[in-house]
Design brief:
The protein is α/β, with parallel strands linked by helices. 21% of the residues lie in helices and 34% in strands. It is built from 6 helices and 22 strands. Strands 4-3-2-1-11-12 form a 6-stranded mixed beta sheet, covered by helices on one side. The chain has a 6-stranded mixed beta sheet with strand order 5-6-7-8-10-9, with helices on one face. The protein has a 6-stranded antiparallel beta sheet with strand order 17-18-22-21-20-19, with no helix packed on it. Helix 5 runs antiparallel to helix 6.
């Protein structure tokens, strides 16, 4: 038995509204959904699960008819559909009165119910949102019926405003597979047991990486799944390194080369990093003309030689300020190193950590990233390991030589070899 798990299709969404390509993106979301259905016609599956937010907003009658017409073209596939927080069942929702094709089962209320598919011996559980937010854990306490067969739960949510989920408890209750929706990035929560399929097409600029759907196979009561990349475009982050030899033209040429390599259809957020000549005046907005670029962030810094500047302006207020700044920076760095008990290699030798308050750290000359969560980041340094702890930490960019971490950094510990 084969199935496809979809969620968060968001038909009707217009990503990057106002950008030259936004109208195409609206059509591409529909086109990708049609391609999924066409693929099922060519290579039939037994079950199609759509775990919420098929539409980006309240669906109109003609849109429901178009979707239903697509479903009617795969009559041998059983379709299971629920509404999410975007296309939730308002009192006057057209969902409530619509008549679906015989092969479609729509969950019509905000209460988990079970439908038995007698042809395949599968029990499917699901519910639709009747409100845009549900703070109650409505899936808590849901248990499979005590019958032989395969039990599949469709669940939409997972944060405090949208049906908080205890996935481990649901798996422990005995469900064979949990088809999740709500988060746009595909992720396997428990391999072959619980997964977010993600949006088939990326909807927001933070929806980085591959997008598509999950294909599953059920044999002898066991589920095996795989992610199928299927989107027309992806959102990507492009890091361009700037140095003292860089010019506006060389940066533009480097950007064109990167877009050519990664794909001209894709949509990019460009980050400029490194140290540039102090006299170089960059025009970041000009870079947007070289591709589908939503944002250009200039994080470059002028490569000032403070000692030379101090000599040049000696005896002036500028020179005095530079002296004060250099001395203050030297003492502050020494205090930080002492307080954190860092080894000498983190203080200007091999691996180097530069802190800006408690909210930003730049690490230079490291070997690799061993662990990455929003509360702990473990990095292999040249003489051991560096453990950063805090809250809401994020690696905002990295190269083979350095990385930048932001968040509420509470401690940095060295684990020497």
């Amino acid at each position: 038995m084969r199935f496809i798990h979809l969620a968060d299709v968001h038909l009707g969404a217009v990503p990057d509204r106002g950008c030259p390509w936004s109208d195409k993106r609206e059509n591409e979301i529909w086109e990708t959904f049609r391609r999924v259905i066409a693929g099922i016609r060519e290579n039939p599956v037994d079950l199609l699960f759509i775990a919420g937010d098929l539409f980006h907003r309240q669906p109109l009658p003609y849109e429901l008819k178009e979707v239903n017409d697509l479903f009617s073209r795969i009559p041998e596939t059983r379709v299971y559909l629920m509404a999410g927080e975007r296309d939730y069942l308002k009192e006057n929702s057209f969902y409530r009165t619509f008549t679906w094709a015989p092969n479609v089962t729509f969950f019509p209320e905000e209460k988990v119910t079970c439908v038995k598919d007698t042809q395949f011996g599968v029990y499917v559980y699901g519910m639709s949102y009747e409100h845009s937010q549900i703070r109650q854990p409505l899936y808590d306490g849901v248990r499979p019926v005590k019958n032989d067969g395969v039990h599949i739960l469709m669940a939409h949510g997972g944060d405090e405003s949208h049906c908080p989920l205890n996935i481990a408890a649901l798996v422990g209750a005995g469900f064979d597979y949990i088809a999740l929706g709500h988060f746009h990035t595909p992720q396997s929560v428990i391999r072959d047991v619980a997964a977010y399929s993600g949006a088939p097409e990326p909807i927001e600029s933070n929806d980085l990486g591959a997008h598509g759907y999950i294909e599953g196979r059920i044999e002898n009561g066991k589920v095996k799944t795989r992610f199928v990349p299927f989107s027309i475009r992806t959102y990507s982050q492009l890091l361009l390194n700037v140095n003292e030899e860089s010019t506006q033209l060389s940066i533009e040429e480097a950007l064109k080369d990167e877009i050519y390599k990664k794909g001209g259809l894709n949509i990019y957020r460009v980050i400029l990093q490194g140290k540039r000549k102090p006299e170089l005046f960059l025009i970041p907005e000009k870079l947007k003309s070289f591709g589908n670029i939503t944002e250009v962030l200039d994080e470059t810094r002028p490569a000032y030689d403070l000692e030379e500047l101090q000599k040049k302006y000696a005896g002036t207020l500028i020179g005095d300020y530079i002296c004060f700044f250099m001395e203050k920076n030297r003492l502050w760095k020494k205090q930080v190193v002492t307080a954190l008990e860092l080894a000498p290699d983190l203080d200007g030798g091999e691996t180097k950590i530069s802190l800006t308050g408690s909210g930003e750290a730049v690490i230079e000359n490291y070997k690799g990233i061993l662990q990455y969560t929003d509360s702990e980041i473990l990095i292999q340094s040249l003489r051991g390991k560096v453990l950063l702890r805090g809250k809401n930490m994020e690696i905002v960019w990295y190269t083979s030589l350095e990385m930048k971490i932001t968040g509420a950094i509470s401690s940095i510990l060295l684990q020497q070899k």
